[in-house]
Design a protein that fits this description.
Aminopeptidase; mainly beta; Neuraminidase; disordered N terminus; 8 helices; 641 residues; seven-stranded mixed beta sheet
C-alpha cells in the first residue's frame, strides 16, 4: 500500500512519499529509466529527499540478479546559495508536489529533470546515490532501483545517531492474532514507545509506519539505507501454529540477525535479547541467523528483528496486554541499542578507559555467615529470602491488569495461615541484613528501599533504576543501566565501579562476580575496591551463579549445557548434558531449570551425580529461589528433596 503526505504520530520523526500518477510496468527503452516516486524524510537535524530511478528487464533464465544495477546519470551545478542537479535519461511521469518537499523540480524535455535548492542550505547539501537490493518479481521481471539522495542539514552539520524503527506487519497484514490480540497493533505500540525514548535522548528517529498501513518490505529497508541510519530495528512478537509448538520453545524471546549482511549485528541482537528477557522475565530462545529475511538482507546498515514474546502462549499474551510490559520492552530495545552504540563508538575510536580503584569508600569485604541473602538467590532476582523462621517472597498480584505485578510478603512454614503483607509495592531483588530488609521498589522507579523486616520504617536509599542488590560489608553492590555500582548501606552517592556491561552479579568471598556483556557474557570478577578485574573462563554464559569456590553456569558455547569452573579459572568441566537456564546452589546440590524437559526444575550434585527431577515442566522458566528449606519456583513453594 502506498500513501502520500500522511502525518506521523510523533512530530518531525517521519517520512512521506511523493507518488507518480502512473508507474510504467513495461521495460523502458534502453538507457531510459522511470522515476516512480520521490521519498521525503524529515529528521530532527536534516531532511533527506530520495528520487527513485528504476528499470525493469526480463529475467527469464537468470537466477543471480544481485549483480544487476543501474547508475543514475546526473550533474551538479553549485553557486552561491544555489544548487542545481540535472538528472538525465529518465522518464519522470507526473508528481503531486507537497509543501513539505524542500526541493523545487521541473522537467527539461522528455528525458531530463532539474532539481533546485536555494538558500544557505544549498552549500551544505550533499548528493549521493543509494542502491536498492535488486529482486526478481513473480512476473519474471528483474527490478532494479537506485535512489538519487539529497541530504539537507538544518544548520551546521553535526553527528546525531539515527535509528529506523520498523513496526512489523500493518494494514491487511495483521501478523499473529491470538486471544483477540493483533500482533500488528502490539508491534506499533512498542515501536512508538521506543521512538519516544530514542528521541528524548537526541536520536534521529525514522518510523517505517506510524499507523495501520503496510509498507513493502523493500520500502522498510530503503528507509534505513537512504538516511544512512546507524541501525535498523524491526519490532515483532512471535507465534507458531498450536500443533507445531515444541514445549521447550513455546514461550521465548528471540532476536533475528543476518551474519552474511554487509554490516552484521549479532552483538546488538544479543544485547537486545538479554535486555528484553531481563525486562519481561521471558524464556531465552536461540537467536536465529536469518539471511533470507528481506528486511535483514536488503539493509546496508546493521539490522535486527526482535521477537519479544510468544503470543500463542496465554501468559505471554497477557504480558503485552499490560502497557507497563510494553513500555519495558521498548525500554529494553532502547537500552540495548544505546549500549551497543557505545561499544561501536569505543571500538571505532580505540579508546580504552583505564580501570581505577575506588578510593572514596573503605570496603569491608567480609560478610558474616547468614547476614544477607544467598548469592544463589540474589542472582535469581531475589524472589525469596529467609530470616528468623520467616520466609520473604514475591507474590503475584491477584489482578492481571493491576499496576503491581509482584508484592512483598512473608510467612512462617511452622504456622498455619501466617502470610503477612510486608510491602504493598511492586518489588524485586529482596535482600536481608540484620533487622533490615532491602528491596528494589518498582513502584518507585526501581529505587532501592530499606525497611524493618516487618515492613515498617520503609525509606528510599538509592534512586532507580537499580537491580541485583548484594550486601558486602558496610556497603551495597547493585546494577544500574548494566553497570556495577557500590554505595554505603545507609545511602549516599553511588560510585560506578567498572564500565563493563554486567549481569548475574553476585558477591562471594570478597569478590564481585558477573557475566560481562561487554565480552560476550563471559564470567569475570573484580574486587569491591575496583582492583583485580579478570576474566575467569572463555565461555559465553546464559546464566551463572557462584557458591564458595565454584561458578556454575549454562554454557552457551556448548549448547547451554551445565558447567562448573573454579573461581580462579581452573578445573573447568561439564556437570550435565542438560540444557540449563536459571541456576541456584544449596548445600551439595545445583538446582536448575531444564530446557530439554519443559523447564522443569532438576537438581544434581556438583560432580554430575544424583540427578533428580523436582518439578514438572512449566509454561516458561523463571528464577529459582531457595530459602528456609523450601524451593520457590514460579510462585509455588515446595519442600527441598
Amino acid at each position: 500500500m502506498r500513501y502520500a503526505g500522511r502525518k506521523m504520530l510523533i512530530p518531525v520523526l517521519f517520512f512521506v512519499w511523493l507518488l507518480g500518477a502512473a508507474v510504467a510496468v513495461a521495460a523502458p527503452a534502453e538507457g531510459i529509466y522511470n522515476i516512480p516516486e520521490i521519498k521525503v524524510f524529515h529528521l530532527q537535524d536534516r531532511q533527506v529527499v530520495a528520487v527513485a530511478v528504476e528499470s525493469r528487464i526480463p529475467g527469464h533464465g537468470i537466477e543471480e540478479v544481485l549483480g544487476y544495477r543501474i547508475e543514475p546519470s546526473f550533474s551538479e551545478k553549485r553557486s552561491a546559495n544555489r544548487l542545481e542537479v540535472v538528472l538525465s535519461n529518465v522518464s519522470p511521469g507526473s508528481f503531486e508536489v507537497l509543501a513539505s518537499a524542500p526541493l523545487a523540480f521541473e522537467k527539461l524535455g522528455a528525458e531530463q529533470v532539474r532539481f533546485t535548492l536555494n538558500g544557505e542550505q544549498a552549500a551544505r547539501t550533499t548528493v549521493t546515490t543509494v542502491q536498492r537490493k535488486t529482486v526478481k518479481g513473480r512476473d519474471g521481471m528483474i527490478r532494479m532501483r537506485t535512489y538519487l539522495v539529497f541530504d539537507l542539514p538544518k544548520g551546521q552539520r553535526k553527528t546525531v545517531p539515527t535509528v529506523v524503527l520498523d513496526a512489523g506487519h500493518g494494514g491487511e497484514d495483521t501478523g499473529a492474532v491470538k486471544s483477540f490480540i493483533r500482533e500488528k497493533d502490539i508491534n506499533l505500540d512498542i515501536t512508538l514507545r521506543s521512538a519516544r525514548l530514542f528521541e528524548a535522548q537526541g536520536w534521529n528517529v525514522v518510523l517505517t509506519r506510524s499507523e495501520d498501513v503496510e509498507p513493502s518490505l523493500l520500502d522498510r529497508a530503503d528507509a534505513a539505507n537512504i538516511v544512512g541510519a546507524d541501525v535498523f530495528i524491526s519490532i515483532h512478537n512471535n507465534s507458531l501454529p498450536d500443533e507445531k509448538i515444541p514445549r521447550s520453545r513455546e514461550f521465548g524471546t528471540t532476536v533475528l540477525y543476518n551474519s552474511s549482511a554487509l554490516k552484521p549485528a549479532y552483538g546488538l541482537a544479543a544485547l537486545a535479547q538479554n535486555e528484553i528477557i531481563g525486562a519481561l522475565g521471558t524464556q531465552r530462545e536461540v537467536m536465529q541467523d536469518r539471511p533470507r529475511l528481506v528486511v535483514l538482507n536488503s539493509t546496508w546498515v546493521p539490522a535486527i528483528l526482535t521477537e519479544g514474546v510468544m503470543l500463542t502462549n496465554p501468559a505471554n499474551a497477557k504480558l503485552v496486554l499490560d502497557r507497563l510490559q510494553r513500555q519495558r520492552m521498548a525500554e529494553a530495545i532502547f537500552r540495548a541499542t544505546e549500549n551497543w552504540r557505545g561499544i561501536q563508538v569505543l571500538a571505532a575510536t580505540k579508546v580504552v578507559s583505564p580501570l581505577t580503584a575506588t578510593a572514596a569508600l573503605t570496603i569491608d569485604t567480609q560478610v558474616a555467615a547468614g547476614a544477607a541473602n544467598t548469592s544463589g538467590n540474589t542472582v535469581n532476582h531475589g524472589t525469596v529470602a529467609a530470616k528468623d523462621g520467616w520466609i520473604y517472597y514475591l507474590k503475584k498480584a491477584e489482578s492481571l491488569y493491576g499496576e503491581k505485578e509482584e508484592t512483598l510478603w512473608r510467612y512462617r512454614p511452622d504456622r498455619f495461615l501466617s502470610d503477612q503483607l510486608v510491602a504493598d509495592v511492586e518489588a524485586w531483588d529482596i535482600n536481608l541484613d540484620g533487622e533490615w530488609l532491602y528491596y528494589v521498589n518498582w513502584s518507585d522507579g526501581q529505587a532501592i528501599y530499606r525497611a524493618r523486616t516487618d515492613g515498617s520504617e520503609a525509606v528510599r536509599l538509592v534512586e532507580g533504576p537499580a537491580q541485583q542488590v548484594n550486601m558486602v560489608g558496610e556497603n551495597m553492590v547493585f546494577v544500574r543501566d548494566r553497570r556495577i555500582y557500590i554505595i554505603k548501606r545507609d545511602g549516599g552517592m553511588p560510585i560506578q565501579l567498572i564500565d563493563d556491561a554486567a549481569e548475574n552479579v553476585v558477591v562471594v568471598g570478597g569478590w564481585i562476580y558477573y557475566a560481562n556483556g561487554s565480552d560476550g557474557f563471559k564470567p569475570y570478577r573484580i574486587k569491591p575496591d575496583g582492583t583485580g578485574r579478570a576474566k575467569i573462563v572463555n565461555d559465553e554464559t546464559l546464566f551463572m551463579t557462584v557458591a564458595g569456590e565454584w561458578i556454575f553456569y549454562s554454557n552457551r558455547t556448548d549448547e547451554e549445557k551445565l558447567y562448573r569452573v573454579k573461581t580462579d579459572g581452573t578445573q573447568r568441566g561439564k556437570v550435565s548434558n542438560d540444557k540449563a537456564g536459571y541456576l541456584n546452589v544449596d548445600g551439595r546440590f545445583v538446582y536448575y531449570t531444564n530446557t530439554m524437559q519443559g523447564n522443569a526444575v532438576f537438581r544434581i550434585q556438583a560432580d554430575g551425580s544424583a540427578r533428580t527431577k523436582l518439578t514438572e515442566g512449566s509454561a516458561a522458566a523463571g528464577p529459582i529461589g531457595i530459602a528456609g528449606g523450601k524451593l520457590y519456583y514460579r510462585g509455588q513453594f515446595s519442600d527441598l528433596k
